[in-house]
Amino acid sequence: MAYQIKLEQFEGPLDLLLNLIEEQKLDITRVSLSKVADQYLEYIRSKENITLENLADFLSVASRLILIKSKALLPLLEFSQEEEEDIKDLEKQLAEYKRFKDISKEVKRLANSKRACFSREGYLGIQSFFYPPKNINIFDLKKTFVKTLGEIPIIEKLEEEMVKEVITMEEKINHLQEVLREKIETSFSEITSNAKDKIEVVVSFLAILELVKQKLIQVEQTELFQDIKLRHNNNNETQSTKS
Question: Where are the beta strands (DSSP E) in 47-175?
Answer without folding.
Answer: none
